[in-house]
Amino acid sequence: MADGGGRARPNILVTGTPGTGKTTTCSLLAEATNLRHINVGELVRAKDLHDGWDEEFECHIINEDLVCDEIEDKMEDGGNIVDYHGCDFFPERWFDCVVVLQTDNSILHDRLSSRGYMGPKLMNNIECEIFQVLLEEAKASYAEEIVVALQSDTVEDISRNVANLTEWAANWTPR
User: Fold this and answer.
1) According to the UniProt record, where is the region LID (predicted)?
2) Which residues are annotated as a binding site?
3) Which of 5, 56, 108, 174 is the 20 to 30 A CA-CA neighbour of 146?
């Protein structure tokens, strides 16, 4: 199954710091490609795939094993866009393209503030973006040739990213 063997359609992981436009990008990309959008955050909440609540960061403590078990069959079949701010716990064999969305820090600060992020949660996410934590995590977890960083500051950036990823998906062939 490694390297997309046996899948008729690709799997794409879209990751990045909260506020970089992952869900917007994934929704538009799913619409354009007819790939299935798997929003891991929503799945965790809907199916209780967590180990409780983190008071400091005001989020669920995701149970990575439960998440992987929940989506494994879909991933093996292919045709998925996975939307999550982490990436190092997913099996490498699942993905044919790993997209890391990046946003200018001042834009990201405004987006997160408007979502009600404050204190440690806000600062942690801004620092994560400054130090390119998710890009480094993706590069350490997946083959370098499938990891791509895309700027996601504006509506135009998102449209261009969706168009480029749609073209990539249309031209994808199993390796």
Assistant:
1) 114-124
2) 19, 21-24, 115
3) 108
